Predict the structure.
Amino acid sequence: PCPRARWPRLAPMAAAYALGTFNDNFFTQTVLFLAIAAGLDTIQSLGTVLYALPFIVCSAWAGWLADRVPKQRLMFWAKVLEVAAALVGALALCFMSFAGMVLMICIMAVQSTLFSPAINGAIPENFTASGVSTANAVLKMSTTASVLCGIALAGMVLDAPAPAWFTETRIPFGKAAAGAITLFTAAAGLAAVLALPRKAAPPSSG
């Protein structure tokens, strides 16, 4: 069981992590569907390479940075970067700019590279030794569920019929909805980081 005292820290951390992984997979899967529909096979391989590249090139540097910069501050700026990337991605979806979509994927990979060591390193700073396993389990469960949800919802949102209130323009409802979800999810992730208590929990707390 997870004592209630842990939830003010664990819930925002899990939400921030899960929302980020959801956005990564939801947006990437959306771009892959659109690329396949447009017959642009190169976009799939290019997006995959650009998403993986920051993890390969910057992971060691991101870990070094997480040891020298307050982890909550690093998580905050990573989420600010995600909001900026989501804005680029939402506009790219609405106007079918594959260059913008690929740019969004690359920026999201950079922010994920920065965010992951910061949040994982923050776990032992915010929980006692007995609470670290629980925190890791909750974060892992939430991110795994968010990955599956992101992949599953991408096609459903793109194919969703426009509601009566939506005025059909040059931007189809599915693309507008995908862009809005991407931007809202990024903003919600930033809000989750801001909801974290300012000070790390003392080592003796549960």
In short: Helices lie at 7-38, 41-66, 71-94, 98-126, 129-158, 173-194. The chain has a mean pLDDT of 85.
